[in-house]
Amino acid sequence: MPYAHITGWGMAVPNRILTNAELESMVATNDEWIVARTGIRERRIVRAGETSSTLAVEAAWKALGCANLKPNELDLIICSTSTPEHIFPATACLVQDKLGANKAGAFDLLAACTGFIYALNMGAQAIRSGSIKSVLVIGTETLSRFVNWQDRNTCILFGDGAGAFVLQANQEFGGILASVLHSDGSGGDLLSVPAGGSKHPASEATIRSGMHFIHMDGREVFRFATRVMAQATREVIGAAGLQIQDIRWIIPHQANLRIIEAAARGLKVPLEKFIINIERYGNTSTASIPIAICEAVADGRLKAGDKIVLTAFGAGLTWGALAAQWSGPLPVVRKLRPAFYRILARLRSLMRRLRLRLEGWIWGRDKA
Ligand SMILES: CC(C)(COP(=O)(O)OP(=O)(O)OC[C@H]1O[C@@H](n2cnc3c(N)ncnc32)[C@H](O)[C@@H]1OP(=O)(O)O)[C@@H](O)C(=O)NCCC(=O)NCCS
User: Among this protein's residues, is 66 annotated catalytic?
Assistant: First the structure.
């Protein structure tokens, strides 16, 4: 049975930085309160033209470059997001087209901030089954488009960004070792975007009442998070047949520094075992774990052979954890040039669009 190794990774965040000081001029808050209660100092926010798929594609090109994998060698694209570009088509399909990954299946997965763990699990299981060889797993969010910038309970927390991993089949031990996934829909109303779906389709009334924004019961979510993060971490370490002392790094969902501190206390491990970058990005939901991992690899903290645990919680409610052995990229056989494939993908997409239009026109003319 092949293992699913993480052979490529990449991240993308918007250039625009929104600081706590700027938020002070938007809502009744202050830098001191935000830092003390959340650990966040600044977050990245998309500009016009930047979307969940543009961030995803940027991260994906980096991951493919790192893995030296051509887009048309991908078998599957799983895009985890709570802020898709549309209800449909799936953001994963937009990414598939922009990459020119013409042999890949593509779908979106929604498990909120736990989504990247769910998506990695699904991708790894598909590889372990032997049915496919390579998967692109993406976590991408543009939460700033769903935040009510007059609601100080939520607008200070969230940021935008994306992270992508390439998973590849490999007979050697390593990669994704175990995962645990949980949910409890009875807490669905604690964190939601109530309107815009089939229950409350967008209307003048839903917009007037702000139902298209993120609604959150912060205290209840906080209580839930502090309970489940350590619990899921312990569970997955057991499922992988490991002990906590075997784990080099824990990479938590970056929602609130106090929640991460509570998890460290619950696990009786020092906070230094956790990779934390919440101060610079805020809560980027499903993208927060891959972004933290990309930074830890870039600065040399995370090394080949390290055993790691990813742990997250989020809307749904969902929570889960995943244990992995970091493998690093496979030996380079040939260097991939993402810029070349980017141009190729654009041309192919254009050709496909033209062909569809032409076929439609011929069909219409024949019918007439
Ligand atoms: C949202 C959160 C930071 C609030 O922190 P908290 O310590 O629980 O704060 P509380 O909600 O108890 O509010 C304390 C006070 O600060 C006030 N307050 C809330 N937001 C504020 C802000 N941005 N600036 C200043 N004061 C604020 C409240 O109104 C309240 O005032 P009151 O006591 O006069 O009523 C915290 O509950 C949290 O992080 N929850 C989890 C959210 C989360 O992770 N969501 C994403 C899940 S993936």
Answer: no
Give the separation between CA 165 and CA 59, rounded to whole angstroms. Answer: 9
Residue 5: alpha-carbon gap to chain centroid: 18
Does residue 102 have an active-site annotation?
A: no
155 an active-site residue? no
Tell me the β-bridge partners of 8: 166
Q: For the segment 162-192, what is each residue's pLDDT rounded down to a tens digit? A: 999 999 999 999 999 999 999 999 999 999 9
Tokens of 147: 């935040």
Q: What is the largest CA-CA distance in the chain?
A: 75
Between CA 151 and CA 172 the distance in angstroms is: 50
Ligand 1 atom with minimal separation from the 158 CA: 46
- Report domain extents, the chain: 3-325
- Taking the CA of residue 219 as reference, the ligand 1 atom at the shortest distance is 37
pLDDT in tens, 99-158: 999 999 999 999 999 999 999 999 999 999 999 999 999 999 999 999 999 999 999 999
Task: Choose among 142, 143, 140: nearest CA to 162.
Answer: 140
CA end-to-end distance (rounded Å), the chain:
56
Looking at domain 3-325, its CATH architecture is 3-Layer(aba) Sandwich (3.40)
Q: How far is the CA of 265 from the centre of ligand 1 (A)?
A: 21
CB-CB contact of 7 with 166 (8 Å): yes
Q: How far is the CA of 236 from the centre of ligand 1 (A)?
A: 30
Pocket probe for ligand 1: among 23, 40, 214, 222, the residue whose CB has the most ligand atoms within 8 Å is 222
Give the C-alpha separation, 333 to 320, whole Å.
36
Residue 156 beta carbon below 6 angstroms from any ligand 1 atom: yes
**pLDDT tens across 242-263, in order?**
999 999 999 999 999 999 999 9
Q: Which of 79, 93, 113, 155 is catalytic?
A: 113
Q: How many CA atoms lie within 13 A of 17 on its CB side?
A: 9
**What is the structure's pLDDT at 329?**
64
